[in-house]
């Protein structure tokens, strides 16, 4: 797969990930694990959007990863995190359903599929 198609796939999947976070997970305060979950907590506790926190909290990981994982992988990761962060800034946090369990399942499935495409 050429580099352009890979970047388009990462872009689309990152936007879908932003939708999953802002439409299904954040409205019910359902948090993911890792850096993204920590960013969601900071986003709920401060007036700063969770998308900005995701980018800021990933910077040290990118620096460490640059040394061990290589430029291509980290470049794709930075691109994905930037697109997800911007998507989360512009996609409003809207509660799609009143059922937190249903929202958790849909958010988890959509986020998992998006992350799978990003990693692929």
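Q: What amino acid sequence fits the structure above?
A:
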């Amino acid at each position: 797969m050429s580099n352009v198609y890979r970047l388009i796939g990462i872009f689309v999947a990152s936007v879908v990930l932003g939708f999953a976070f802002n439409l299904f997970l954040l409205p019910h305060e359902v948090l993911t694990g890792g850096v993204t979950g920590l960013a969601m907590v900071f986003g709920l506790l401060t007036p700063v959007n969770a998308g900005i926190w995701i980018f800021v909290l990933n910077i040290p990981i990118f620096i460490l990863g640059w040394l061990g994982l290589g430029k291509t992988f980290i470049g794709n990761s930075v691109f994905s995190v930037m697109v997800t962060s911007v998507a989360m800034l512009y996609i409003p946090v809207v509660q799609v359903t009143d059922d937190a369990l249903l929202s958790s399942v849909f958010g988890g499935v959509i986020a998992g599929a998006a992350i799978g495409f990003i990693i692929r």
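Q: And what stands out in the fold?
A: The CA atoms of residues 27 and 37 lie 14 Å apart.
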